[in-house]
What we know:
This protein has about 300 residues and is of the alpha/beta class. It has 2 domains: about 5-165, P-loop containing nucleotide triphosphate hydrolases (Rossmann fold, 3-Layer(aba) Sandwich); about 175-285, Orthogonal Bundle (Conserved Hypothetical Protein Ylqf, Chain: A, domain 2). The chain is about 40% helix and about 10% strand. The protein has 11 helices and 6 strands. It has a 6-stranded mixed beta sheet, sandwiched between helices. Strand 1, helix 2 (about 45-50) and strand 2 form a beta-alpha-beta unit. The site of magnesium ion has 5 residues, from helix 5.
Amino acid sequence: MDIQWYPGQMAKAKRLLRENLKLVDAVIEVLDARIPYSSRNPDIRDLIERRPVVAVLTRADLADPEATSVWIQALSKDYFAAAAVNANSGMGVKKLLSILNKIPQRRQRSRRPLRLMVVGIPNVGKSSLINRLLGRSAAITGDKPGVTKGKQWLRLAGNLELMDTPGLLWPKISSKRQAFALAAVGAVKDEIYDPVELALELAAYFQASAPKNLQQRYKLSSVQGEARLLLEEIGRRRGCLSKGGEIDLEQAARLFIKDFREARLGRLTLEQVGEIGENNEQFCENDGSGNQPLP
Ligand SMILES: Nc1nc2c(ncn2[C@@H]2O[C@H](COP(=O)(O)OP(=O)(O)OP(=O)(O)O)[C@@H](O)[C@H]2O)c(=O)[nH]1
Ligand SMILES: [Mg+2]
């Protein structure tokens, strides 16, 4: 599936990051626990310039807990530290705070608070995470990408200042698989992709990797065969009908995508450690054919 978005907006977000980086001691890179590979921004490394980066996996409540702990171990080798949280409930935030407190000031003996910039793909939970760290709702959040438009500094009572930033996507997503992963978790605007196409790819993923989850959720005896027929069957069972009584495939697609996003099909991690390549760049370059099987 192809994704088109607004390069102007993203260029602006990138400039904002670059301009403010000199003000901060470290960066928090927020990743989606269900797609840690695909939510990693290949540009960020170049932008960050030798500052410590802490990887935070949000939506750990929606991901497979075992896969998340394997990810934390793997990411800890690559980042200053890594932690998993539920940025809605606050689970894991206390541990994250203790990690943040170990980050050194860039200027020693400086009396100012430690300053952190929070970056990541759109809709991944950056603002929610900041609110949980602060213990109050100070940053605006919302269930769609592009909610945070500019930077916002927020101060924690202790000794921490956090900068919220708009979501960042890189200009060229060469891998269809990565485009699928980003659309599946809601990092790109709904208008930008075809919901039926996304649902069909998601259905194919479930057929291959988690057929039981499909069977249980929609009470189906068999889930194999053409993905389109499966989506139709889901639509039939869930009453997604058009006025003429026919199955409304787009409605079925939206329902199915929503079920996945809210983990009603179970807690699943779409990308496992070591599955795609040792580093994300390799993954981005090698996987541009679009012919690769889904994870
Ligand atoms: N289940 C679950 N939902 C989360 C979590 N973190 C964030 N969300 C939800 O994800 C949506 C996006 O959260 P935001 O904090 O606005 O995300 P953001 O990264 O600031 O988004 P932009 O500013 O649009 O780039 C909201 O509906 C949150 O409730 C999490 O850990 N678990
Ligand atoms: Mg935000």
